[in-house]
Amino acid sequence: MEKFLLEGMTHEEVREVVGEGAVAVVPVGSFEQHGRHLPLITDSRIVTYIAHEAAKLASEKARVVISPTLWLGCSHHHMEFPGTLSLDRELFVKVVKDVGRCLARHGFRRILFLNGHGGNSSPLKVAVDQLRDELGEGVLVALVTYWELNLEEEVRRLRDSGPGGISHAGELETSCMLYLEPESVRREKQHRFVPRWRTRNFGLGWYVPSPAYLGFHVRDFSKTGEVGDPTVATAEKGRKFLELAARRVAEFLVEFSSWEIPELYEEG
Ligand SMILES: [Zn+2]
Fold first, then answer.
1. How far is the CA of 198 from the centre of ligand 1 (A)?
2. Which domains does the chain have, with CATH numbers?
3. How close is the Cα of 43 to the center of ligand 1, in Å?
4. pLDDT tens digit sequence for 9-54
């Protein structure tokens, strides 16, 4: 077992890494429908892989501990599709806060929630803000959603789909699963669905500018649950994207682990 996995450590070993100033990383996934071609566990699998790869890449420069992935997220917007399991948003915020509180209680002073599901973003921000209120300035609590870490440029070069092609169960997620678990991808069932709802101020999908926000359920516009273009997905693109994402997360882990709290109060 990898040395950075919390699940394999003893309490003495945890005390030791806390003493070395380790960053605690909590990957947060989901359990929800991913169209007719990807398994329900997709988001949790991808974010777990990225967390582990990032820990390996960062290991020379930062002490990192990865907790087991929180696999149950906020997926009520997928509930029309069987198999989706979801926590009520308020309860999710409480769960996340409790995990953060436990880590802080054990002495971790830097905690990163690594998110792998769009529906978790807003409640995770609430949880992180409330943890800051509660824990005070002695503990840094951060949130990163892996596809948002300045990857747009690289993704533009990597992708074959147009705007809207990368979204829920679209080109990137399907590529990642083709690389990670090819046997779980039902390619014969994949279906291109790029929503037409796109205006100057609103768009659906990753890397689509959308200053306006809309509360929606996926069933409002996608009958079969996927949003994007899985037909152009390849395992090779998945490998490249996962590597890029892991490198960015590792880069942030190194930055984050070096922030001294007083630096935040630097006076000009
Ligand atoms: Zn997903």
1. 21
2. 6-260 (3.40.50.10310)
3. 5
4. 999 999 999 999 999 999 999 999 999 999 999 999 999 999 999 9
